[in-house]
């Protein structure tokens, strides 16, 4: 049997679907159209609201394969890997994409190793190679200094994880129709070794900065922990979240989940604010694919200005309070 | 408790220079270091050994010069190092790298725990840790930020997720990939450095490992690099300077106008 079809892995959370499930479909739709193949959203997990499942079709999927069971309620990589491998072996997709989330980046290498498939991490661009029809996977590497394009010419499926927020979901199309295919969970695929004991939802400073459209970050120039309050004020007004440079996290002004950069998270928001961040290459690696970058720094030679769409050379302790004050009037 | 820490030697990326013509990294004069995120794996491995006894073995695949990374790991407190090196491994992607590391770990002997860094700062894939767990059929916890408890045959860890944390219980042997929240890496001590100097580091070559040649190096790697580009860094945005109250006011007004144009507000 030939390998055919483009699969994207949907991620369930507490009965809902994460935004990345829909972002992946807009990626997958393009590839499937180019290959003239079916786009399938694969959902492994506990029970998910029906309307959200239907939304997968309205936002691009031709088919949704659902493996639903209470035993799949929590992400346990061993079991999820067994289920996905079982599906891949029986249905033979040509391409499998997942989001480069903590679970996606755990599941995909687990599966790829076992089935000896090529896997490319954290892609920002995907395309189809002319003539061969191979998937071209482009990703930043070496701290964002290079963009490498990678393919897996001889192994199938071709697997990749895709950076969250690097594409927008397609608009809902009420006229779209598709197939919902439920596959029974075979209990022999359940691996009981690892047990999920507890989920601890983070506080405001544990919020998922990768999922936000607006990230307001502070660096060494913030001088102390208390000053981060100004960033939270700005973030609240704009409906965003607060991030931080490594310097700020190492000084205890922000938490590790907020860290943007090479040893933290990579974010691709609509807008990224950098206050008191000089723009070390490690930091740039984590944010330079943001759509719009706005920065404030006292040093006019700071590297951050090179990647900025709008910059103010000045004292953030003057700029930020005034900006917050003026914005408060604007957004009221 | 026998703990193995797979590590990687990477270029010191803070001052990486790219050759604008070829788009490749200029390696001359660039110092090689232990992948910074591996230091957290080494640290937690040493801490667990100090508490529960046993030994920590650092293992790396790379050229002979990667010996230096293993010496550094020993200087920090690892007991042993193993270099996995052979020309036939050259060009390996994550799949083939993990394949060889698994064979090396099996050769090292009985293992209770494998602790890896979250990812390397050069390749930035984070795949080799989960790859090894899959190949060895070890229970896996990724993005571990805390080891809460450890007994002879099981451990409880906290794992960082997008929403917060989750607590997992794993039977041993197991594999963890850890994030920097887990601990602060210690510096090598003078005594450690002296010990590193006299510690003999064995090299495993193809001949020492039970490997299939088809799975090695470029030949054994399902992925191929098609091309490398150097992305444009500069955006050439509008930069305003604040010199007094008036220019401060103007700059902030301009910023707000810019935000309106971009439909941020």
Short description:
The complex is a heterodimer of chains A (332) and B (265). With 332 residues, chain A is an alpha/beta fold.
Mean pLDDT of chain B: 93
Low-pLDDT regions of chain A? none
Strand content of chain B: 25-35%
Biggest sheet, spatial arrangement of strands of chain A? 7-11-6-1-4-5-12
* Content-based structural category of chain B: alpha/beta
Put simply, the count of helices of chain B is 6
In percent terms, what proportion of residues of chain A is strand? 25-35%
What's the CATH superfamily of the largest domain in chain B, by name? HUPs
CATH architecture of the largest domain in chain A: 3-Layer(aba) Sandwich
Question: Which sheet architecture does the biggest sheet of chain B show?
Answer: 9 strands, mixed
| Average of the residue pLDDT scores of chain A | 95
Q: Class by helix and strand content of chain A? A: alpha/beta
- State the total count of DSSP E strands of chain B: 13
Structure overview:
The complex is a heterodimer of chains A (332) and B (265). With 332 residues, chain A is of the alpha/beta class. Chain A folds into 2 domains: 184 residues, Rossmann fold, CATH 3.40.50; 127 residues, TPP-binding domain (Rossmann fold, 3-Layer(aba) Sandwich). Helix content of chain A is 27%, strand content 27%. In chain A, the strands form 4 sheets. A 7-stranded parallel beta sheet of chain A has the order 7-11-6-1-4-5-12, with helices on both faces. Chain A has a 5-stranded parallel beta sheet with strand order 15-14-16-17-18. In chain A, a hairpin with a 6-residue loop joins strand 8 and strand 9. In chain A, helix 3 packs across helix 4 and helix 5 packs parallel to helix 8. Chain B is of the alpha/beta class and 265 residues long. Chain B folds into 2 domains: 214 residues, Rossmann fold (3-Layer(aba) Sandwich); 32 residues. Chain B contains 6 helices and 13 strands. Chain B is globular. At the A-B interface, helix 3, helix 4, strand 7, strand 9 and strand 10 of A face helix 3, helix 4, strand 7, strand 8 and strand 9 of B.
